[in-house]
Amino acid sequence: MLSDWLQASAILPQADLTTSEAAIQVSGHLLVRNDYADKSYVTAMLENYSKNGNYIVIAPGIAIPHAAPGSMVHHQGLSLVTLKHPLNFGHPLNDPVCLVFGFCAPDHEGHLDMLMDLAALLEQPQYVTRIQNAATKEEILQIISE
Amino acid sequence: MLKIATVCGAGVGSSMMLKVFAQQILDQKGVEAEVTATDISSVDPHAYDALITASAFADLLDPTATRIIRIDNMLDKIYLKQQLEIVVADIAGSDHNS
């Protein structure tokens, strides 16, 4: 379940942000704060976004900013920033984004269970809407533990 | 054995999701296939029967090199299944002719 991977300390609900870069940065800082990755990983996430662009918006309203695996990653980890005001990430079909799941992985395969648990939740639109509307971390943790 | 690659920017996020979904769909259909996750800077399109990727990367790939499935909603498994069925049929057809 996603609740195995997403800790309260890595969730920021209803963030009042104005740019896609800020949203990526905040999702990255949550990974750093939980000691999943070094600060330099946040820079790498922003570089991946500026170089490869909008593909991190994997479905309508959902972005998964990340960077390539490497020594700046300590453990696999996941963070969630929900946006008070949906933001454009430059995706022709999936904008605007309201859920930003930052993640990091030390290698290419080890985090597969985490990613699949995330996908299993996001495939259900009713959960996406509820997470989007949740006002507190506790509410979000409740939804992902169901 | 079909060779299919999923392509993204870092080879760790969307390409891994698409790899698992595509492999599940092909296994269920009984199609022998190996699906590999890779990234846009290292992929050799000629090495695969088909690629699966986001539109932003599809635009960067040579459309004559191999079959390309574009997917913008990566959680839409029904769309992915339809596209894979088209590609599998196309590959079967071209094998038959050759």
Describe the protein.
The complex is a heterodimer of chains A (146) and B (98). Chain A is α/β, with parallel strands linked by helices and 146 residues long. Chain A has one domain (2-138): 3-Layer(aba) Sandwich (Mannitol-specific EII, Chain A). Helix content of chain A is 38%, strand content 20%. In chain A, strands 1-4-5-3-2 form a five-stranded mixed beta sheet. In chain A, helix 1 (20-33) packs antiparallel against helix 2 (40-52). Chain A is globular. Chain B has one domain: Rossmann fold. In chain B, helix 2 (55-58) links the parallel strand 3 and strand 4 (67-70). Chain B is globular and about 35 Å long. At the A-B interface, helix 2 and helix 3 of A face helix 1 and helix 2 of B.
Summarize this, please?
The complex is a heterodimer of chains A (146) and B (98). Chain A is an alpha/beta fold and 146 residues long. Chain A has helices at 20-33, 40-52, 112-122, 125-133, 137-144, and strands at 11-15, 57-59, 62-63, 77-87, 97-104.
